[in-house]
Specification:
The protein is an alpha/beta fold and about 325 residues long. It has 2 domains: about 1-95, no CATH class; about 125-315, Rossmann fold (3-Layer(aba) Sandwich). It has 13 helices and 5 strands. The longest helix is centred in the last third of the chain and has 15 residues, at about 225-240. The two termini are about 30 Å apart.
């Protein structure tokens, strides 16, 4: 969606999220449309934008898997259909989305800054999610001093990270002058270990069952996990983390990179963070995160603006 929004901005177009898209992390009962509007403010949708009758009919009644068969007709009606494949073509055509440099739309800004701003715009919580976030802040007594957002991923990928312990994360956290720690993890044993072995920190975490399934998607299909509850807990953690001052985690985790990018979009500058380990993105990924605008080279430039970032500790 970040790439699609940037392309729409660059071509003076309007982005319309597909109203009948399918989203794994929700339910047909809680959100019949199963789309972006379940949790976030709508960007622009079919109901709020004037379209021709035929275009509105196609977009409002056809599920996403059927839309490619209408792409030619939609194009004649002035609507370009974005698919995962076409977005990959955009990346190739514009050198991973570095289009703003040619048009000088945002001089002296990096691709990572642009991606972070677009991400923050797209992930503004709707009223329901905002209320859940407000309630969690009240329960945690949020905002009393600086906070470290600490992400310990112990899901199915943990088998690749067997040599990384909670102590490694806490050693990195000591670089920051903060005792409040928002602990984000799928594993209840991590929370137990944190509270038992490191009582000097004020541990904060959402009250949510952490069963750490081997494959969360399979468990959702079996009915063992409520998709909506899972999504709400994840998003509340994400939005809380965006207000933290410091970040500790592993940048080979998409979720940890997302936390940092959202915080950068919120405040306009990348926060201080520590990467536990030497992997900066799945063994040398060409782009940092899943944003075509933010390559590893662009990240290097962005972090140079703030000499206190993790970049100065060895990238």
């Amino acid at each position: 969606m970040t790439l699609a929004l940037w392309q729409a901005m660059s071509t003076n177009s309007i982005l319309l999220p597909a109203p009948l898209g399918k989203w794994t992390y929700t339910s047909s009962q809680a959100c019949p449309a199963r789309n972006h509007d379940c949790y976030f403010l709508p960007t622009t949708n079919v109901s709020s934008y004037r379209l021709g009758t035929r275009a509105a009919e196609i977009l409002a009644t056809k599920p996403t898997e059927m839309l490619p068969s209408f792409s030619a007709e939609l194009e004649t009606l002035g609507i370009d259909l974005f698919t995962r494949r076409s977005l990959d073509e955009i990346r190739s055509a514009y050198n991973f989305g570095l289009l703003w440099k040619d048009k000088a739309m945002f001089p002296r800004k990096t691709g990572c800054w642009i991606a972070a701003q677009l991400l923050y715009f797209l992930l503004q919580p709707n009223y329901y999610l905002e209320e859940r976030l407000r309630a969690e802040k009240q329960r945690l007594n949020w905002g009393q001093g600086p906070t470290i957002a600490l992400h310990v991923r112990h899901g199915w990928r943990a088998r690749f990270n067997g040599d990384i312990s909670l102590k490694n994360f806490l050693m990195a956290a000591r670089d920051f002058n903060a005792s409040n720690v928002l602990l984000i993890t799928e594993d209840q044993t991590v929370i137990n270990e944190a509270e038992n072995l490191f009582p000097e920190y004020n541990w904060m975490y959402t009250l949510y069952p952490r069963n750490n399934p081997h494959d969360i998607g399979v468990e959702m299909e079996r009915g063992g996990i409520d998709p909506t509850a899972e999504a709400i807990n994840a998003l509340v953690n994400l939005l809380l983390a965006s207000e933290a001052q410091y970040f500790v985690g592993r940048t080979n985790s998409t979720w940890f990179r997302l936390m940092i990018m959202l915080a950068a979009g919120k405040y306009g500058v990348f926060p201080e963070f520590r990467n536990v380990g030497n992997d900066w993105g799945h063994g040398g990924l060409a782009k940092w995160g899943f944003f075509g605008l933010c390559t590893m080279g662009e990240l290097e430039k962005e972090l140079q603006y703030n000499p206190r970032t993790a970049f100065t500790r060895g990238f």
